[in-house]
Amino acid sequence: MTCLKLPRIGPKTTLHYLQKYNNLQLIVHKMISKFGVTTWNRCFKLVTTEIEHAKASKINILNYQEASYPQSLLTLANFPLILYAKGNIGLLNQKKIALIGTRKPTRIGIKQGQKVTKYLVEIGYVIVSGLAKGCDTCAHRTCLNNEGQTIAVLAAGLDQPVYPQQNRQLAADIIKNKGLLISTYPLGTKLRPQYLAARDEWQSGIGDGVIVIETGRAGGTNITMNFCLKQHRPLARLDTKITKSVNNTVIWPLHSENDIQKFVKLLESTK
């Protein structure tokens, strides 16, 4: 964590050092030689303060080498080295599926989203979404209403006010019902518009697959779909307006319960 606080040292460089030397004392020595002991101590103090704040806020800080870190993320080329989690971290390595969609769904979209979410909860899937208005809210709330467990991927530090404001109670309900809030952003990180788009990468990456409830022509749903395809995750659609394939990759249509069952079999065969 201290390396990530150093100037001009990002996740890729940190991972390079960890994989090349595999010796923390040697890495610390090299970083002190490069940046000086004053800079290193300042960054180390920042990390110590963050860890103390996390403990006080009941937030877990997981590194990629821990068993509780989601193994699905490790299949990605640029997986986050650190993950912040509040709630039931045992969900991170259970079977999971991301449900995504527009912030302004139609009544039909909501009805379809509720139906597929209920079915997935009944067969034991953890529901992943982004706590946004519309389809995300539908997926999280339907999951909770059916005694399921859900993971919300956030785009700010977990000690920051939940966005959107109207979903703060939903976030609290997720924790209360043994769900989980996660973020790749350090504590104290305020929400920025670009973080919402960046968050979409982990939303698809943490799941075994992605189902699109409903989408518009532009927005975060399409960003998540593109990430899903790049990550070679199975992608399905309830929305009939979505194209049947992208770059020769089939987007599975879910028009019936039989279609959903076939998609679930695909998910389990690719794990």
UniProtKB/TrEMBL annotation:
Span of domain Smf/DprA SLOG: 61-246
Entries under InterPro entries matching the protein: DprA, DrpA_SLOG
GO biological process terms on file: DNA-mediated transformation
Pfam families: DNA_processg_A
Family affiliation: Belongs to the DprA/Smf family.
Name assigned to this protein: DNA protecting protein DprA
Taxonomic source organism: Companilactobacillus crustorum JCM 15951
